[in-house]
Specification:
The complex is a heterodimer of chains A (275) and B (283). By secondary structure, chain A is mainly alpha-helical. Chain A has one domain. Helix content of chain A is 48%, strand content 1%. Chain A has a two-stranded antiparallel ribbon. In chain A, strand 1 and strand 2 form a beta hairpin. Chain A is globular and about 75 Å long. With 283 residues, chain B is an alpha+beta fold. Chain B is built from twelve helices and seven strands. Chain B has a five-stranded mixed β-sheet with strand order 2-1-5-3-4. In chain B, strands 6-7 form a two-stranded antiparallel sheet. The chains are: A mainly alpha (275), B alpha+beta (283). Chain B: Keywords: 2Fe-2S, 4Fe-4S, Iron, Iron-sulfur, Metal-binding, Oxidoreductase. Chain B: Its cofactor is [3Fe-4S] cluster; [2Fe-2S] cluster; [4Fe-4S] cluster. Chain B: Belongs to the succinate dehydrogenase/fumarate reductase iron-sulfur protein family. Chain B: This is Succinate dehydrogenase/fumarate reductase iron-sulfur subunit.
Chain lengths: 275, 283
């Protein structure tokens, strides 16, 4: 039953003199270091990604190098403009003429930008709301996530669901990377290992998501009546406690995988076969 | 050991200023010990709220070098003593005097919180709950109501105008405890969304950082509440599922017609700003 109309609002007395000086903060530690670091890293990531997206080249290492490596920034590559060998076979969008990375990045971008951890990170570092605990946010008004566009953060679970599809595709990419086309059979190269770790990191990041935890069993009030959902919730909860670490690690792995594929595809280095 | 200088805010609603007190350093002390020595020596009129000196009563909340902390749980040897240690009252609440603030805002929010409304008892007239059903909420019952989480939350710390429609982290954990209670039948999600400001929280986790009880306020209460609100108000598939499965709830008016009001504050509640209600927040 609902209680919204049962509860009469109680007026809150506003105003009153607050104690302490009118300063932004009384903190003397290096409170600015963490948001500054986050700001720098996220800015670098966005700048690199923007550059890589519009390169529209060197994102696939194919049969001519006896490898099957695709950058995670360009996968799934289902456009007619994708280089031969990179795109899938079931669905090819011939009408898509701009860089295929725009499509490939749409879902990861939606997932990460609405992620509960990244929200904390960019609200603190970019929005300065607040930059650190006990430091004034400096905004004249604050409406949080109650209005457009930030109210769309509430659709994070849909971005999470689509991200799982992307994870499956990137996992297939990682498995296919163990093929050595034209070289005979199956093997392990540095590239295949990087794509595998990247896929694992993305799964860890997705499965530790707060929306995943809620959908697995967080919405249940009586765990004793839902043992499977309780078990799922208990599996996901420890991962959820490391969501921040998985968020950063998977971000790092995506960049590393793209850089590696890019320099191999450009011919700067050869992807060494380990065994 | 040398001396230590405490820079303490002295003042009331008419204004104030920092005053330095230098006292000998004593090994093993916490900030509250030093404040007591200052009260016993140079400033017997220094106002400071305290009770247990064991981190359990939640009375001695203050801002130590700008960080909201309990004075009784902050060891002096963990603070840099090259500069004066700055001690100020909680910023979010109106000052009464020196380090004492008026935290009645929290009691107003506590009074609006719909209490547990249990389902019908079992045939033998009792309720039974499995341990697995109640252990999730036990973390929230560690709350000592120090209100440091309310103090540090920028939604009301920096925006006084948000106070009438923002319950704050302390009460979000109470809402979560009740919302996930295996016996409870109240649905507080629309209340949270429309009048208690769950959407104002932007999950920057300061409440979790300052909680002296180590309650994971954001991860275990606020975000799960946000997700439950999404279930009820924003998720189109969940809405469609309710329609198809006919899991429509009774309207609030229908419920109110045959059920006593969850809580109806009296006019006295509004006048007694500093009176602590009998059931303030804790059940």
């Amino acid at each position: 039953m609902s209680t919204i109309e049962d509860v009469k609002p109680v007026p809150v007395t506003l105003g009153g003199v607050r104690g302490g000086p009118e300063r932004r903060t009384l903190r003397r530690d290096r409170w600015w270091a963490s948001p500054a670091f986050t700001y720098a890293v996220l800015t670098l990531f966005v700048a690199y990604t923007a550059w890589a997206v519009f390169q529209n080249a060197d994102y696939y290492v194919g049969v001519n190098m006896h490898r099957d490596l695709i950058s995670p920034l360009y996968s799934p590559c289902i456009m007619g403009s994708c280089v031969p060998g990179a795109h899938g076979t079931f669905l090819v969008l011939h009408w898509w003429t701009i860089t295929p990375a725009i499509f490939a990045l749409s879902v990861p971008a939606a997932f990460r930008s609405t992620c509960y951890y990244y929200r904390k990170a960019y609200y603190r570092s970019f929005w300065q709301a607040p930059p650190a605990c006990g430091v004034a946010d400096g905004h004249a008004r604050y409406t949080g996530e109650t209005r457009f566009p930030l109210i769309l953060q509430n659709l994070h679970r849909y971005a999470w669901g689509l991200a799982l599809v992307w994870n499956v595709i990137l996992t297939i990419d990682a498995v296919m990377a163990f093929r050595m086309p034209g070289d005979g059979g199956i093997g392990v190269s540095v590239g295949s290992l990087i794509l595998t770790v990247n896929a694992i990191a993305l799964w860890l990041y997705s499965l530790s998501c707060h929306a995943c935890r809620h959908l697995c069993g967080g919405h249940v009030d009586q765990f004793s009546k839902a043992p499977i959902r309780h078990r799922l919730w208990k599996l996901v909860t420890p991962l959820n406690g490391r969501h921040m670490q998985f968020a950063w690690f998977s971000l790092f792995m995506v960049v590393l995988a793209d850089v590696y594929v890019r320099i191999v595809a450009a011919g700067w280095i050869h992807d060494p076969k380990l065994f | 050991m040398g001396d230590v200088t405490m820079r303490i805010w002295r003042g009331d609603q008419n204004g104030g200023q920092f005053v330095d007190y230098t006292v000998p350093e004593v090994e093993g002390e916490v900030v509250l010990d030093v404040v007591h020595r200052i009260q016993a020596g140079p400033a017997p009129d220094l106002a400071c709220r305290w009770n247990c000196k064991a981190g359990k009563c939640g009375s001695c909340s203050a801002e130590i070098n700008g960080k909201p902390r309990l004075m009784c749980m902050t060891r002096m040897d963990q603070l840099p003593t090259e500069e004066p240690i700055v001690l100020a009252p909680m910023r979010t609440f109106p000052i009464i005097r020196d380090l004492v603030t008026d935290v009645s805002f929290n009691y107003v929010m506590a009074r609006q919180l719909p209490p547990l409304k249990p389902r019908d008892p079992e045939p033998d007239g009792t309720y039974r709950m499995q341990q697995v059903d109640v252990e999730r909420g036990q973390e929230f019952r560690k709350c000592i109501e120090c209100f440091l989480c309310q103090d540090v939350c920028h939604v009301i710390r920096d925006h006084e105008e948000n106070k009438p429609h923002y319950a704050g982290p302390r009460f979000f954990i109470r809402y979560m405890e009740l919302e996930s209670h295996p016996l409870d039948t109240n649905d507080r999600r629309e209340l949270l969304r429309q009048r208690m400001g769950i959407g104002l929280c932007n999950i920057t986790k300061c409440c979790t950082e300052v909680c002296p009880e180590g309650i994971k306020i954001t991860d275990n209460a606020i975000i799960p509440l946000k997700e439950r609100v999404v279930d009820g108000a924003y998720d189109p598939i969940a809405w469609l599922g309710r329609k198809i499965l006919r899991r429509t709830k009774r309207s609030a008016r229908e419920v109110a017609a045959d059920a006593p009001a969850a809580y109806a504050p009296t006019s006295e509640d509004l006048g007694e700003r500093r009176a602590v209600p009998e059931t303030a927040g804790r059940a």
